[in-house]
Each structure stands twice: as structure tokens, then as C-alpha cells.
Automatic annotation (TrEMBL):
<dbReference type="GO" id="GO:0005536">
    <property type="term" value="F:D-glucose binding"/>
</dbReference>
<protein>
    <recommendedName>
        <fullName>Solute carrier family 2, facilitated glucose transporter member 8</fullName>
    </recommendedName>
</protein>
<comment type="function">
    <text>Insulin-regulated facilitative hexose transporter that mediates the transport of glucose and fructose. Facilitates hepatic influx of dietary trehalose, which in turn inhibits glucose and fructose influx triggering a starvation signal and hepatic autophagy through activation of AMPK and ULK1. Also able to mediate the transport of dehydroascorbate.</text>
</comment>
<keyword id="KW-0325">Glycoprotein</keyword>
<feature type="transmembrane region" description="Helical">
    <location>
        <begin position="180"/>
        <end position="201"/>
    </location>
</feature>
<keyword id="KW-0813">Transport</keyword>
<feature type="transmembrane region" description="Helical">
    <location>
        <begin position="320"/>
        <end position="340"/>
    </location>
</feature>
<dbReference type="GO" id="GO:1904659">
    <property type="term" value="P:D-glucose transmembrane transport"/>
</dbReference>
<feature type="domain" description="Major facilitator superfamily (MFS) profile">
    <location>
        <begin position="28"/>
        <end position="468"/>
    </location>
</feature>
<keyword id="KW-0472">Membrane</keyword>
<comment type="similarity">
    <text>Belongs to the major facilitator superfamily. Sugar transporter (TC 2.A.1.1) family. Glucose transporter subfamily.</text>
</comment>
<dbReference type="GO" id="GO:0055056">
    <property type="term" value="F:D-glucose transmembrane transporter activity"/>
</dbReference>
<dbReference type="InterPro" id="IPR050549">
    <property type="entry name" value="MFS_Trehalose_Transporter"/>
</dbReference>
<keyword id="KW-1133">Transmembrane helix</keyword>
<feature type="transmembrane region" description="Helical">
    <location>
        <begin position="123"/>
        <end position="143"/>
    </location>
</feature>
<dbReference type="GO" id="GO:0008286">
    <property type="term" value="P:insulin receptor signaling pathway"/>
</dbReference>
<keyword id="KW-0812">Transmembrane</keyword>
Length: 468
């Protein structure tokens, strides 16, 4: 290990073992986590909104198949730009100010959608909310990790992904009873609440110390942790040294880069955002009587298993959870593909049934069993994703990069993630139309891809653990 590496591993903040722990750190973490909650709501918004917009009557904007695919996917283009902007803001404007600034495109974007009279206004609003999503997805984890003391850092860090899936579930639940305009109005609430709370929260002591603002850092430590005693100055050389392309020749730099980018790309190639963005549309294509209810069930499962992953991640290990998660997703997409194959025969095989009806009422009705096969396979897919491929790539991204390249490296990873998300979500609708015209059942392509991704993920996870 080089002297520079040794300097980077020294903590900027060194609390004594006997230091009291303040509870306001949880309030600050909750305030920052409202960013991921807003981010999740923006992602989940398209699922109930697209069917509503397809049925909209003039003068309201109406989406055809092509416009619907852009409505779902354009948010990821904005998020890709937001990831780059967030990487720049987090080191220059600070963590707190970056979170405050991201509330502006969140609220503005949903306001534009609410007032939309043309399709281009819908796209503009989604692009703005996507920009905010990209900033929040990068800055919120950094803020939370830097304000948390070691005993609660894992717990608070895992809340980021939990808040994202909670936001998605809230969008599904609200979309069950609200039409698209009122749903956009509701989307303004979480970022507004975050803006109000974050105004009373401090900047992270770590960032303040790197800016040589010792008194402000001590005040922030006092507010967050209940004590300003024992917190040391940053070691010499702890400031960001900047990133240069020549550094990619070093294994300690290029290996984390390859691992981080690969994990982000494979996370999106699993197809999770296609499922989350178009959940209601997918179940409508599957001829469900209540596609909104099916979407809510899937969202609830994702929240529960994300919470479970937070509890078992440190015990089970990253590599095991990645491999297990990939296997579960392969099995579930295979089952959903089989469901579409079984329902291709025509109206007699339709699953147009009420999910709330007891399964035992008509044991001879095969359509009821097929309906639950579809819901079960999608629930299994989201559960498998939530256990591994959902939280772990983001967690590893924050663990494997040296300090002096972390800003650039995390920005590149976030950019990769959102560009791949755009590719998947934009082409999903076209792929569904193409598959409907062929004998191949939907999700066969995704199933085959996941078989390969799972094998690569095992190697990537192993390498990540070695580098970290």
C-alpha cells in the first residue's frame, strides 16, 4: 500500500469510543432519503400513468405505442445527465446544497406534467424529473454515508434502496385511485418535504473538513452526533487529488472501474426497470382484470425483500447474494415466458380473472391458476432482484473506489446505469410488439440474457470483494 493509499484510508473523523451518539443523525438521514423516495416515485409514475394517458380523451394529451415508450424511457436520459451533473456538484457545491438543488427539477418536472396539454410537455416534465433522479441517486448515498457513525452506517446506507422501492410502491398505490394529473401533483410532495427538512440539516462534517472549515464541521458533528469532542483534522493529502487517465494503468484504479461499470450495466440488463416502468402495461397485455392490483402486489414484494436484504447482506456476503439473485431471476422470467406461451391459444386460455377471488372457488378453472402463475413469477423476479442485484451494485460502487477518484468513478458508473436503463426501457415496448408477432414468448430473450449475466456477476462480485 502506498503512502497516498494509507492517507486515504485514515478517517477524516475519528470519534472516541465513549462518545455519545445523537439521534438527530437519523433525522438528517431521513431528510436525505426523501431524495431516493422522490426518485422512486418518478420511476414508478409511468406504470399507472401510461395506461391512463392511452385512454385520455381530447384535449388532454394521448400516447400511442411509440410515445408511450419514450414517456417511460426519457426519464433515464435525464437521469444520465443528472448523474454527470451530480458528480460535479457533490465535490464543488457540497452534499447538502446538491440535495437542495435537485428538488427544483423534481417539483418543476411534475408541475409541467400536471399542466401538460401536449405530448412534448409530458416529455419535458419527465426529462426534468429524470435529471433530478440522477442527482439524487448519486448525492443521497454520499450524504448519508458521511453523516452516519460506524455503528449505524450499514443500516442507514441500506435505507437508500429501501426508499427507492417504497417510492415506486407509493406511485403504484396512488395510481390505483388517481388519474395521471393528480398523480403528478402528488409527486411534488416528497421533494417539497425534503427541501423543507434539508434546510435545517447541516452539511456533512467530512466535506466541511476537506474545505478547511473546522468550526462549522465541529458544529455539524455536535448537531448530528451529540458531541464535538475527539473529531480530528483531515490528514494531509486527504483532499481530492483529481483523476487523470494515466491512473487507469494501475490495477487499483482500473479493476474497480471495470467492476463498477459492469455491475451497473448488468443490473439494468436484468430488465428490472422495464418491469417497474411498464408493470401495469405488462399485466394488461397478460389480460388481467385488475392490472393495478397486480402492480401493487409486485411493488409490495419488492419493498419487503429489499428490507430483508438490508438485514442479511453483511452476514450472507455480496457474492452469494448476487449469484442467488441471478438464479431466482432466471427461473422467474422462464416461468413468466411459459405463462405467455400457455395463454397464446386464444380466449379459452385467457387469464382475464379477478385476483381477489379465492383460488379454491373454481379448482377446475385453469385460467385462475395461470393468473397466479403470472403474478407469482413477477413477484419472484422482483424479490430476487431486491435481494441482490438491486442494492449490491450501488453498495459496491461506494466501497471499491479510492478517495481521489471516487467523484469521477461514481459519476461514470451512474451514467452507465442510466444509459443502459434508457436502452432497456425504450426498446421494451418495441420488443413486446415484435415478440407478439412471432411464436417466441415474451421474456425469452431476458431469460437467456440473465443466464449469462448471472455467471458474469459471480466473477464480478468475487473481484469486487478482492479489490474492496
Amino acid at each position: 500500500m502506498t503512502p497516498e493509499d494509507q492517507e486515504e484510508t485514515q478517517p477524516l473523523l475519528r470519534p472516541p469510543d465513549s462518545a455519545p451518539r445523537g439521534r438527530r443523525v437519523f433525522l438528517a438521514a431521513f431528510a436525505a432519503a426523501l431524495g431516493p423516495l422522490s426518485f422512486g416515485f418518478a420511476l414508478g409514475y409511468s406504470s399507472p400513468a401510461i395506461p391512463s394517458l392511452r385512454r385520455a380523451a381530447s384535449p388532454a394529451p394521448r400516447l400511442d405505442n411509440n410515445a408511450a415508450s419514450w414517456f417511460g424511457a426519457i426519464v433515464t436520459l435525464g437521469a444520465a445527465a443528472g448523474g454527470v451533473l451530480g458528480g460535479w456538484l457533490v465535490d464543488r457545491a457540497g452534499r447538502k446544497l446538491s440535495l437542495l438543488l435537485c428538488t427544483v427539477p423534481f417539483v418543476t418536472g411534475f408541475a409541467v406534467i400536471t399542466a401538460a396539454q401536449e405530448v412534448w410537455m409530458l416529455f419535458g416534465g419527465r426529462l426534468l424529473t429524470g435529471l433530478a433522479c440522477g442527482i439524487a441517486s448519486l448525492v443521497a448515498p454520499v450524504y448519508i454515508s458521511e453523516i452516519a457513525y460506524p455503528e449505524v452506517r450499514g443500516l442507514l446506507g441500506s435505507c437508500v434502496q429501501l426508499m427507492v422501492v417504497t417510492g415506486i410502491l407509493l406511485a403504484y398505490l396512488a395510481g390505483w385511485v388517481l388519474e395521471w394529473r393528480w398523480l403528478a401533483v402528488l409527486g411534488c410532495a416528497p421533494p417539497t418535504f425534503m427541501l423543507l427538512l434539508m434546510c435545517y440539516m447541516p452539511e456533512t462534517p467530512r466535506f466541511l473538513l476537506t474545505q478547511h472549515k473546522r468550526q462549522e464541521a465541529m458544529a455539524a458533528a455536535q448537531f448530528l452526533w451529540g458531541s464535538e469532542q475527539g473529531w480530528g483534522e483531515p490528514p494531509v493529502g486527504a483532499e481530492h487529488q483529481g483523476f487523470h487517465l494515466a491512473q487507469l494503468r494501475h490495477a487499483g484504479i482500473y479493476k474497480p472501474f471495470v467492476i463498477g461499470i459492469s455491475l451497473m450495466a448488468f443490473q439494468q440488463l436484468s430488465g428490472i426497470n422495464a418491469v417497474m416502468f411498464y408493470a401495469e402495461t405488462i399485466f394488461e397485455e397478460a389480460k388481467f382484470k385488475d392490472s393495478s392490483l397486480a402492480s401493487v402486489i409486485v411493488g409490495t414484494i419488492q419493498v419487503l425483500f429489499t428490507a430483508l436484504a438490508a438485514l442479511i447482506m453483511d452476514r450472507a456476503g455480496r457474492r452469494l447474494l448476487l449469484a442467488f439473485s441471478g438464479v431466482v431471476m432466471v427461473f422467474s422470467t422462464s416461468a413468466f415466458g411459459a405463462y405467455f406461451r400457455l395463454t397464446q391459444g386464444g380466449p379459452s386460455n385467457s387469464s382475464h380473472v379477478d385476483l381477489l377471488a379465492p383460488i379454491s372457488m373454481e379448482p377446475t378453472n385453469a385460467s385462475v391458476g395461470l393468473a397466479w402463475l403470472a403474478v407469482g413469477s413477477m413477484c419472484l423476479f422482483t424479490a430476487g432482484f431486491a435481494l441482490g442485484w438491486g442494492p449490491i451494485p450501488w453498495l459496491l460502487m461506494s466501497e471499491i473506489f479510492p478517495l481521489h477518484v471516487k467523484g469521477v468513478a461514481t459519476g461514470v458508473c451512474v451514467l452507465t446505469n442510466w444509459l443502459m436503463a434508457f436502452l432497456v426501457t425504450k426498446e421494451f415496448s418495441s420488443l413486446m410488439v415484435s415478440i407478439d408477432l412471432s411464436p417466441m414468448p415474451p421474456f425469452t430473450v431476458s431469460r437467456e440474457a440473465l443466464c449469462r449475466i448471472t455467471l458474469i456477476a459471480k466473477d464480478s462480485g468475487s473481484a469486487a470483494l478482492c479489490v474492496g
